[in-house]
Structure formats: structure tokens, C-alpha cells
Predict the structure.
Amino acid sequence: MLRPLPEQPAESSRSCQSRFRWRRELGDEVYFVNLLVAFPVSFVAGLISGLIGVGGGLLKVPMMVLLFGVPMDIAVGSSAFMVGVTAAGGFVGHAAQGHWDWRTSLILATTVFIGGQIGSRISIRVNRQKLRKGFGLFLVVVAVFMLARVL
């Protein structure tokens, strides 16, 4: 995430379209997602997220940008949606086992929602390369803190 991504070769829509290469367009962005890679990697990201509760943007944004070639701003927005879907799946499993405190959930969900609204408005204005590098630095800081706790 910290290094610049290599330039993608210009690909014609006909030569790249296949059963397992999904052509996506959003505004002036055109990119292709290899579904043979996307499905198993996304499954593992969801599995890890459900198991340990980590995985929202920490796994999904780098996964989309580095492995699938999704532009950073689109990956951030898509990740925000997927976090809700993944969280709902994890919630059902944990609630069924009685691992849920509705008061804590309500307080944290409200503050996360407000922070998400502010963050999304800021990210729209930030340069995509700066956003990717900033996210990369954030991942390094998180990794350092996790290592420090283990050691």
C-alpha cells in the first residue's frame, strides 16, 4: 500500500471480458476483477473477520486494491458496505451464543456511524495516492502495536 502501483496496461473491453474477469465501470473508472481470485480470497477475509472480529478495512481494502485492481476510492466505499454485511454475519453467530451486550453495541455503533460519515466525506476530497499511502502507514502502525503487545 505504501509503494506506487504499477501502471495497468490499456485493455480493450472485448479482449479482457471473459466468464471469470468481471469488467466494472464507475464514472470514468474502468477496472477488471478476476473472480477466480476474488471469491476464495474474499471467503478467507470473511472467515478471519468472523473468527476474530478483525477484517473490515484492514483486510478488505488492501485485498481489493492490491489483488483485484480496484481503485482506492472505490475500494474504501465498497469496504464500508462489506463491513456491514460481514458484521451482520458475525453478529448473528455471536448473538446466537449469547455473546452480545446491546448497550455497548448501541453506543459503539452510533459513534462508529458518525465517524464513518465524517471519514467518508473527508476521503472524497483526498488524493487517491495519498489516501492509499496514509492507509498503508496506518496498517504499519497497527502491526507495530500488535507486535508490541505480543512481545
